[in-house]
Amino acid sequence: MTDETSKTLFHPFETGDLASPGTGSRVLFIGAEPGFRLPEGFAGELVLVQGFRPAFVDLERQGFQVLPESEGTGFDLVLIMAGRHRGRNEAWIAEAVRRVRPEGLIVVAASKRDGADALRRRMDKLVSMGGHLSKYHGVVFWFERPEAGFPEPDDAEALVEDRFHTAPGMFSHGRVDPGSRLLAAHLPDRIPGKVADFGAGWGYLSVVIAERAREGTVLHLYEADHASCAAARRNLADHAGRIAIDVFWHDAAREVPATSYDLVVMNPPFHATGRAADPAVGGAMIAAAARALRKGGTLLMVANVGLPYEAIVGGLFARHTELERAGGFKVISALR
After folding, report:
1. How far apart are CA 209 and CA 206, in angstroms?
2. Which of 53, 58, 181, 202 would you label with 66, given CA atoms 20 to 30 Å apart?
3. How far apart are alpha carbons 11 and 139 in whole angstroms?
């Protein structure tokens, strides 16, 4: 679906409804995904923004200039490939308005499956729309930078339990994931040694670990979403003086940590880029945890009960056991 959305985004340049940027123009592309194709004659200098580590790495390998978050101002054109998260889409549009030059153009595309029509209608109430087209199961619309600026979305941040900072687009935005809460109940009361949280998100499990950690504990968070890394640092700030904490923008499934750990905890994602469950994602993280653990170290993980991780765990660890099954989740402990 992301490939079709990128084709939708560039469709008005293909049809001539919009003029392609020429040599010397500056183009910011927010939400860029690997594999997009530029229309013929599209000559602007591209700066891509992609905060999801695997896609960021793939775009860099394709030779693009890529940033994990937007920087700079005065762009002639800002492209946005929107997704399913309403709040994040609107935050990206507000970001685009800040980054584009006066009278610069903002072009937004989304899949109809992700609410493209509703997004266009909301924006139509806030800006003077330049036009829109439907193609490739999506909608693309465009407008010039509004003179009056653009309002920040109401749900740009959600505070969970009056202490956890989260934002739209992050895993479990606005609430504690029930699987993570179940796993937290099985963490040791006193946690020593070197600990890693794979797929740490905005840091819920790591905060629980930090609260139970002995002095001298080392806690490393590995998270593929750049914005979630920033939120995790903020959520762990009160604990940083007592134990050693580092947050790494890192694809735990593909980038092997340089440190060996006594304990790895994780609530692995079970989706790739689509909506269908993909056990291979969690399987790759289990294999990474096995490589990162010292001999005798422990993996504690939670997963949906229907995901077949036991065979993978059994092939990589000396022994494993299911600690609890509740609410559609299971907690697995494995000894390296």
Report:
1. 5
2. 202
3. 10
Give yes or no for residue 3 having a pLDDT over 90.
no
**Of residues 178, 172, 164, 174, the one with CA closest to residue 231:** 164
- Picking from 51, 287, 59, 57, the residue whose alpha carbon sits closest to that of residue 171 is 51
For residue 219, which phi and psi values (nearest 5 degrees)?
Answer: -125, 120
d(CA 260, CA 194): 8
Give tens-digit pLDDT for 212-265.
999 889 999 999 999 999 999 999 999 988 899 999 999 988 888 889 999 999
The alpha carbon of residue 53 and the mean position of all alpha carbons in its chain are separated, in whole angstroms, by 8
Give the per-residue pLDDT at 157: 81
Tokens of 104: 């610069």
Nearest to 293 by CA among 220, 225, 232: 220
User: Please, what sign has the CA dihedral across residues 249, 253, 257, 261?
Assistant: positive
What does the alpha-carbon distance between residue 275 and residue 271 come to, in Å, rounded to a whole number?
A: 6
Q: Please give the pLDDT value at position 188.
A: 92
Is residue 231 a contact partner of residue 246, using CB atoms and an 8 Å limit?
no
User: Model confidence at 1, in pLDDT bands (50, 70, 90)?
Assistant: low
Separation of first and last alpha carbons in the chain:
39
pLDDT in tens, 156-213: 788 999 999 999 999 999 999 999 999 999 999 989 899 999 999 999 999 999 999 9
Rounded Cα distance between 81 and 128, Å, is: 20
Q: What is the mean pLDDT of residues 12-37?
A: 96
- CA 162/CA 242 separation, integer angstroms: 22
Please give the Cα distance from 99 to 79 (Å, whole number): 11
CB 260 within 8 A of CB 194: yes
Residue type for position 330: K
